[in-house]
Amino acid sequence: MTATPLRWLTRPRSQAVTWGVPWARGTVAADDGFTLTRPDGSAVPLQSWVTARWPDGSVKWSAHATPASDDPADRYTLSPTPEQAPVAPTAPVVSVVERGGALVVDTGPVRWTVPTSGPVVVSGAERDDRQVVGPVELVSLWQGEPTPDSGGGVVREELRGTAEEVVVEQDGPVRAVLRVTGRHQGPDAGASRGGRGPWLSFTVRLVFSAGSEELRVVHSLVWDGDAEQDFLAGLGLRAAVPMRDALHDRHVRLAGTAREDGAVGFLTEAVRGITGLRRDPGEHVRRAQVEGRPCPPTQEWAPEVSSRLGLVPAWEDWTLDQTTADGYRLAKRTGSGHAWVTIPSGRRSAGYGYLGGPGGGLGFGLRHFWQQHPTRLDVRGAAGETADATVWMWSPSAPVMDLRFYHDGLGQEDFASQLEALEITYEDHEPGFGDAHGIARTHELTLRAHASTPRAEELAEHAAVLEDPALLVCDPERWQAAGVLGDWSLPDRSTPARAAVEDRLDLLLDFYRGQQEQRRWYGFWDFGDVMHTYDPDRHQWRYDVGGYAWDNSELSPDLWLWYSFLRTGRADVFRFAEAMTRHTGEVDVYHAGRWKGLGTRHNVQHWGCSAKQLRISSAAYRRFLYYLTADERTGDLLDELAEPERTFTAIDPTRKVRTDAYTPDPSALAVGLGTDWGALAAAWLTRWERHGDERARDRLLGTMADIGALPQGFLTGEALLDLATGRFDTSRDRISVSHLSAVFGLVEICSELVSLTVGTPEEAPGFEQAWLTYCRLYLAGPEAQQAAVGRPLPGISLPQAHSRLAAWAAHRTGDAELARLAWSTFVHDRGDVLNTNPMQREEWARTTVDGPLVAEVVEEVLPVSTNGAAQYGLAAIQNLALVGDALEEEPAGENR
The PcRGLX/YetA-like central beta-sandwich domain covers which part of the protein (predicted)? Predict the structure, then answer.
């Protein structure tokens, strides 16, 4: 495996791009370089680095960056070379130098200055020795109480994001990355937030590319407040823009709704408009202003206009306010002492704007602008010497962010009452555990330092690439050949039985994408997640019923989407999976506080459930996005799990159902061998392959050997971990099986580990056999289980989901009977979570629901819930890959 063809995820983009590529074990040496070529063989500037290695040191995943091209090719070829080829002398480069207590990043057309500390993120940007962007800062608005329902005055405090550390992560020649960390505070840090000090910890990555005028800003916020006392009323990125041009040459552009083909139109305005007047300055003058070009000298205008310019109002301020996913409001005013004038508005702004003139200006925008509402774009002071452009990630005109728990506890003060409530609402409540302290959210923004006002077509392209950024990807065949992410195969409709399964996989993907739109699964905290279970009586997902509401990675929809993308290469599936990974890795996981490193089980509020578990924060769900895009923020989330085993000292995941006297003991931590160890193994494996971390390697391989040494292997259910040594006590001899053990990434991780270690110096004795026994016996039936281990296995459920265990064992051993068992169980359901025979297509038909019992026309597929959809998808994908030929022996329409 050498030369690797690459294609664009969507369409060729004139934009800098960063992407990842996998390599089969032993094909790329540790010190190899790479070249990128166009179809004509010409080389493209390239910066490369390694993101993961195989145990033998060879490259497993590489990451690459190339600058924007005015003429991007449809396809490229990436090839390993004995050493990294230098960037051609004529190619653009980006450099980072320290100067006067700041870092100066020179991309060629623009020099950006980044202070190493203080209240601004960027102090300015210059083009041709002329400043076109002034200070860029983070701003927030804090309230100490919610706004009353009836309105009324509430004091708001304006805070600034203050940088405490700036780190250079990459310094060129093609790509440079600075990481800025800090907190929000007022001029007096001690007086901030009503005297309680700084808050809202942030990480901002500033990403620069050679030859580019664009600064990509990745903003990650940790909400570290007290939900009873801290209410966020606004969160934004503000940039100052020098305004040197005449008022009639100062331009404001704000993006409207993107068309179905992705094209974006703009509100096209000037600070002092000269179109639509009673007197005409001349067509050439009007056209110049509308097109963003300098107007001719006023002496060339019609005198009845030029002599009266002072009587034409100058508009200071503009606002585009996207308060919901379905509508934005536009308004402008001549100054702060005057009324706003409304402008015809629209549905879903592309979230991009421009402010400036012939002397330079700023393009600014927010990705997923309407999807992550409430958002806002502001222009202020456009008639003065310096104007401000603010991208609000939380609009100040929206209701304040209120993260208090949604009910009063309903008297659930002890485990008994909490377990009782679990039986009716499926909500696992515990006082004080519905706490949002430590959750996070990431936004992607852009700033462009322009030499002059860009043409409308350029602005439209800038808005389009913000929403759908450039990404180069391999073809699915190439990903599969690398053998890096478990068991999957390419779509195959060569027989009616295979086609039926493939059709259902497509139906599920299309249905959930449609549900996101129909059910408006959007918003600052919600975008990217899906709902857990459907209520057919109300024709509504159970958004308000305890543990049936937001899914929070329950039963691995993240993995289902990512494997679906790998095998199909579908761009829409990638974007769906990307948004889910952004959400579940940030919002559903704690990044600070007492539960740091743990995630939260499904609930009405993403953070509401008292089950704080590693199965939700699992690295298994984040690795795909990181390796495919080299996204540094996702890398942060993986690094947060450097020592994931320590989370078991904070809380016992099974404390409510224990019958023994166990409390977390660092020398004997109770770790489930399914959801718990699967998440530990994913974190250790990722740490080992990314960083060569010997501690993670030893704990991974050591616990694998320990599972192999347990008398009942994986069937033991739970083992005691010594935190100091990272090893299990192998003396426990019991059988305990949970239907949840294998459905949170354990199947995928175990398959990778067996493939990675068996027959190598890293092989863990007994591990493969322990996993093989578990896979073979789970669906074997009571008699076979009795014969093998002396008793039938308890806790057997979700048979369709577990059909892939039998498939893995069949594939590994060549056992045809196990292969038939896998497909028989998958095809004939036997009471699985979907509660229907999945091969009977008529029972999966989409139904349109209209009429007085629904607020909006919706579609539903009644057998489908997210647990079932995710596990059906994963089982289908893995069964097809492992024992696909055995499917032909199963009649597609019979029930048992």
Answer: 94-463
3-state secondary structure of 803: helix
**What is the rounded distance in angstroms from the CA atom of residue 637 to the CA atom of residue 175?**
22
Cα distances (Å, whole numbers) of residue 304 to 271, 389, 544? 20, 34, 64
How many other C-beta atoms can be found within 10 angstroms of the C-beta atom of residue 273? 18
DSSP H helices, 402-521, are 415-425, 456-467, 476-482, 496-518
Residue in 762, 754, 764, 759 with CA at minimum distance from that of residue 706: 764
Q: CA 716, 718, 719 angle in degrees (round to 5)? A: 100
408's tokens: 């009063």
H/E stretch holding 130 reads strand 130-133
Radius of gyration of the chain (CA): 29
State how far the Cα of 255 lies from the Cα of 355, in Å rounded to an integer.
Answer: 12
Specify the pTM.
0.96
Q: How many CB atoms lie within 10 A of CB 734?
A: 11
**Whether the bond into 374 is cis, omega within 30 of 0:** yes
Burial class (CB in 10 A: 0-12, 13-18, 19+), 608: buried
Element (H, E) at 124: strand 124-127
847: exposed, middle or buried (Cβ count in 10 Å: 0-12, 13-18, 19+):
exposed
Burial code (b: 16+ CB inside 10 Å, e: under 16) for 332-343 equals bbbeeeeeeeeb
How far apart (Å, rounded) are the C-alpha atoms in residues 562 and 276?
53
Peptide bond into 148 cis (omega under 30): no
* DSSP code string of 507-545: HHHHHHHHHHHHTT--STTTTT--BS-EETTTTEE-TTS
Compute how many other C-beta atoms are within 10 angstroms of the C-beta atom of residue 189: 13
Q: Degrees (nearest 5) of the Cα angle 800, 805, 807? A: 90
DSSP, collapsed to helix, strand or coil, labels residue 353 as strand
User: 3-state SS string over 164-209?
Assistant: EEEEEEEECCCEEEEEEEEEEECCCHHHHHHHCCCEEEEEEEEEEE
pLDDT digits (tens, 9 = 90+) for 749-785: 999 999 999 999 999 999 999 999 999 999 999 999 9
Quote the tokens at residue 22: 């996998």
pLDDT single digits (tens) 277-331: 999 999 999 999 999 999 999 999 999 999 999 999 999 999 999 999 999 999 9
Q: Extract the tokens encoding 448.
A: 């462009």
- Amino acid in the structure at residue 701: L
CA-CA distance, 853 to 490, in Å (whole number)? 42
pLDDT digits (tens, 9 = 90+) for 499-540: 999 999 999 999 999 999 999 999 999 999 999 999 999 999
Tokens of 119: 């209240």
Both tokens of 788, joined, read 């093998």
DSSP assignments along 261-288, one per residue:
TS---EEEEESS--SS-SS---HHHHHH
